[in-house]
Amino acid sequence: MALPLLEGLRTDGARAQDTSGSSFSFAIFVRQGNGVQQATSDGEPERFWPSFAPGPIDSARLAADSDRALSELAAHANQLSIVRGIRFNDPANACKHSGGGNQVLTAAPVSDDECNSTLALGESLDNRITVQLGSPGDEPLTLFAGIKTGYLDEVLSYRGPRELRPAERDPYAVYQKLFALAQLAPEELSRLELRRKSVNDLVRKDMLSLLARRDLSLEDRARLDLHFTSIRDVENRIAALTTDEELANLQAAASYLDDDTFIEAVVKLHCDVMTLAVASGAKRAATLQIGAGPDETKYQIDGVQQPPFHQISHRADVADGVDLHHKIDRKLLGLFKYLLDKLTAYQLPDGTLLNHGLAVFISDVANKFHDYENVPYLVAGSAGGFLKTGLYVDAAGVTNNKILNTIGAAVGCTNAEGKPMDDFGDPLLEKGFVTDLLAAT
Question: CA of 156: how far to CAs of 38, 101, 274, 412, in Å?
Answer without folding.
Answer: 23, 6, 16, 21
